[in-house]
Amino acid sequence: MPDATLVLLAPIGLDAACWDAVELPEVPIRRHVFPGFGSRSRAPEQPTMQSLADEVLALYEGTLDVVGVSMGGMVAQHVALGAPGRVRSLLVACTGASVDPAVMAARALQAEERGMAGVLEETLARWFTPAALSTPGHPGVTYARETLLELDPGCFADGWRAIATHDAGARLSELSLPTTCVAGRGDPVGTVERVRALSDAIDGSRLVVIDGPHMIQLEEPAAFGRALADHLARVGEG
Fold it and tell me: 234 in the Ramachandran plot: left (φ > 0), alpha (ψ -120 to 50) or beta?
């Protein structure tokens, strides 16, 4: 198998530190952060799934193993569809083949009208289990809370509007590559059923269900790391 760069695509609003608790392999790794998040400036124009995928393909050369959680998993699908000859494998977690655009538009508007403090608690409630949210100093929750509060609400809104353009379902049958679709049993957003439908649509895919919430890499980093290691081992055997 050719050497490949492991590209990690973050969820909405988060930055490169969202992978810090995950045991990552000793291979070339690029932690990609989307425009407006972390230290990146806001995009001059409203991003779309296509523009975000195009940026990933332009920034990282050669063969890619692409990993994404939530929004990152959506963009990963478009990366593979845009350049199937360059993407060796996919691991997508806690996401689906499409979204309800009206729900995403409503979340964008709420961020703009209420600010990050006004949407913080409901966002965290979608992302983490009640047990994690009630644990004082939980590292994943603390990181997410602090990162979101520092975010420009307009950038968060841009992310939701980009997600609203995600609809890859009709094209997923074009893909035939080693793919692992990870679902968290406690995820109310990327439900097991939604992730299973995504996995069923991709030739060469397998479904892995582990205990965890939507932000599975933040609340269950060890389990997510094992799923990633198993995925790469499977790719290496191909």
Answer: alpha
